[in-house]
Amino acid sequence: MSLSNTEIRYYDSTVLRLPADKRKEYHAQVDRLISALTSRLHDQSDVKVTKVVKAGSFAKFTILRKTSEDPVDVDVVFYISGRSVDNETLGTLTQLIYDTLLKLYPGKSVESFEIQRKAATVKFVGSGLSVDIVPVIEDAARPGYGWQFDIHDGTKMQTCAPCQIKFVRHRKEKDGDFRTLVRLAKKWRNRIELTPLKSFTIELIMAHVLAKKGTDGSIEKRFRDFLLYIAQSGLKEVISFPENGLVLTQFNDPVVILDPVCNSNNVASRITEDERKEIVASALEAWETAVFASEEDDIEVWKELFGPRFKVKEEA
Predict the structure, then answer these.
(1) What stretch(es) of the chain map to CATH 3.30.460.90?
(2) Cα dist. 256→140, 166, 193, 266, 276 in Å?
(3) Which of 215, 187, 196 is nearest to 57 (CA)?
(4) Which helix (H) or strand (E) holds 60?
(5) What sign has the CA pseudo-torsion 169, 175, 176, 182?
(6) Whole-Å CA distances, 79 to 136, 145, 201, 255
C-alpha cells in the first residue's frame, strides 16, 4: 500500500523541514553578518553594496534541517555597483570580502574561513550554519540581475537571485507539495552521497517533471515519477522552462538543464558522462526500491532510501 500524503507530510514536517525556531536563529545570525560586513566594506573600500539577497535553498524553503549528513548553508548575494564586469574578477572581489571577514571575526565566533568556488564561506561554530558570501556585479539595466564569476575558470554568467526564488515560489503555487518533493529528493541524494546531483539541479528536474506530469497522484507517486524520469530519460534531453523564452545557445555537455534566469547558463555543465551514468543508475535503483516498498507497505525498505529516521506517524 502506498504511503498516504498525510504520512509523507508528517515525515517532511517532523524530520526533513527546517523548524521555525532554527530558521529564526539562522536569519538572525545571517542578518548580523550582513550588517557588519556591509558596514565594514563601505568604510574600508570603494565597494558599494546596493542590495543583499538571501538565496539558495534557505530562501526557497527547500533546505533540510541539519543532521550529520545534511549540512545547513545559506547563500547571501551581495550586489555591488561601480565595478566593471570586464575589468573585475571573482578573485579580487572574494579576496576583499575574505579579508574583511577576517577583521570582523578574529576567530571567537567563527570556526573557519574558506574561499570556495563562488564565494567566501563563514562557518559558525554554535549553530553549524555555513554562509556563502556571493559577490555579484549588478546590472543596472536589469533589476535583480548581475554578473557572477566562477573562481576556477574565470568565466562570468548572468544571474538573478530574486528570480530564482520566484521560480520555486511559482512551482509551489502550482503544486502545494513541490517543496516537500524537493526535500524528499535531496534527502535521498544525501543519503547515498550522490554529490554530482546538486540541489539547484534537483529543483529544476522536479519542476520539469511537474510540467510534464502535472499534480495528479499522490506525493509518493510523484516522487517515484521524479526518479523514473531520470532513469528513463538518462538525463539526455535538454531541460528548459517557459521563463527561458527563445534559446539560441548550443551545448555539448552530457547533461543540459538551463537556468530559468539565464539561457546561456547550463546549471548541470559540470556533470561528467560518468557522473550522468551514476545519477541515472542510482535513480533507477531508488525507483525500484520505492516501488517495492510501496507494494510491500514496508517502512524498513523506505528507510533504505531515506535513512533510519524515516517515520510517518508519531511513535508510541
Answers:
(1) 16-159
(2) 29, 22, 22, 6, 11
(3) 187
(4) helix 56-60
(5) negative
(6) 5, 9, 24, 30
Backbone angles phi, psi at 303, to 5 degrees: -65, -20
| Closest residue by Cα to residue 273 from 263, 281, 265, 283 | 281
CA–CA separation, 165 and 146 (whole Å): 15
Architecture of domain 16-159: 2-Layer Sandwich (3.30)
Q: Does the domain formed by 5-15+164-306 have CATH 1.10.1410.40?
A: yes
For the chain, where do the domains classified as CATH 1.10.1410.40 start and end?
5-15+164-306
Give the span between the Cα atoms of 303 and 308, in whole angstroms: 5
Answer whether 11's CB lies under 8 Å from 310's CB.
yes
In a 3-state reduction of DSSP, which class is residue 145?
coil
DSSP string, 43-58: HHSS-EEEEEEEEHHH
Q: Which residue has the cell 534527502?
A: 187
Number of CB atoms found within 10 A of residue 256's CB: 21
pLDDT digits (tens), the chain, 316 positions: 689 999 999 999 999 999 999 999 999 999 998 998 888 888 877 778 889 999 999 999 999 999 988 989 999 999 988 777 777 777 778 888 888 887 887 765 666 777 676 678 888 877 888 898 888 999 988 889 999 887 667 788 889 999 999 999 999 999 999 999 999 999 999 999 999 999 999 999 999 999 999 999 999 999 999 999 999 999 999 999 999 988 878 899 999 999 999 998 999 999 999 999 999 999 999 999 999 999 999 999 999 999 999 999 887 6
